[in-house]
Design a protein that fits this description.
The structure is a homodimer. Helix content of chain A is 65%, strand content 6%. By secondary structure, the first copy, chain A, is mostly helical. Chain A is globular. Chains A and B meet through helix 1, helix 5 and helix 6 of A and helix 1, helix 5 and helix 6 of B. The structure holds a DNA duplex.
DNA sequence: TATTGTTATACTCTATAACTATA
DNA sequence: TATAGTTATAGAGTATAACAATA
């Protein structure tokens, strides 16, 4: 039993970085206006957490506050994100996607997904199911508190 | 059928980066002497391609020659790699791991694998099998000609 | 001339520290 | 005092350009 665990861990460690490299390379090859991976992730988070604060975004992406502030500077400057001040707590900022930001995010996502569709389209249905279920299992293990909605913050 | 493919692609796109982030974060947290991911990969490549040239290494890792030269500077300076001149073509250099380099590589790998073992140890055997098979499937798709795969050896 | 590698230089990304404004 | 965010500055990592040595 222990051996199965170790073997699986080794396989994850061998495979995930390789898949990630491919995704990253494909993503980079198509970004029209130099959207970095961190910026892409920021857009995705803001989309799912409309009105998010800079702190919650930084915590989720894993950047420091100053780094995130600068990153957001770039996104605001390019018209992909709006940065307004929070009405309830004026220290905070309220981040939202513009329509352009939504489109840019969707385009980047779609392109990369299309690339993956092409990659896996040769698989038999059985194998697709296996990969699909495996992704769900891994997601449950590796994506823990992703659902930090802006509505239920202020918990102190 | 097409929908299954698209859904699976989307799941891969959502899940793999999250798992990768976790692996990367864990890897970073334990590197004793600031071994970057690129350096780790370079060590792994040199281990599997003893006497490799700088060009072949750069091509494999995906760095330019000057960048790789600098990266190797660091590894040589820290005693993890030796850089001697190739006897048959004196323009080339001959890269090899020192014993320290081998140990450092092995330690970095083992630690990260141990972390993953801990992460997945709560899974039922069925789920472990699913993940394991899924990794094999993805590996066959995403690791085509990279000879880096034998890097991560089975042990214990 | 072409190839292998190094040096010089610059840019991007991210960090830490110090600061302002608000709570 | 504590928290949210910004500005200033520095370091790591990587790129391009120009160069030296060898083929």
């Amino acid at each position: 039993m222990s051996k199965i665990i170790e073997d699986t861990a080794r396989q994850v460690l061998e495979t995930v970085p390789a898949v990630m490299r491919t995704i990253r390379a494909e993503f980079r090859s198509q970004r029209s206006r130099d959207l970095s991976v961190a910026q892409f992730r920021a857009l995705a988070y803001i989309k799912n957490n409309d009105g998010a604060s800079l702190s919650s975004l930084a915590a989720h992406i894993g950047l420091t506050l100053p780094s995130m502030s600068k990153l957001i500077d770039g996104l605001v400057g390019r018209g992909l994100v709006t940065r307004s001040s929070d009405r309830e707590d004026r220290r905070k900022i309220c981040l939202q996607l513009t329509d352009t930001g939504k489109n840019e995010l969707e385009a980047a996502y779609d392109h990369t997904q299309a690339f993956l569709v092409d990659k896996i389209s040769s698989l038999a249905k059985e194998d697709l199911d296996t990969v699909s279920r495996s992704m769900q299992i891994l997601k449950s293990l590796f994506i823990a508190d992703h659902s930090e909605k802006s509505t239920l913050k202020t918990k102190k």
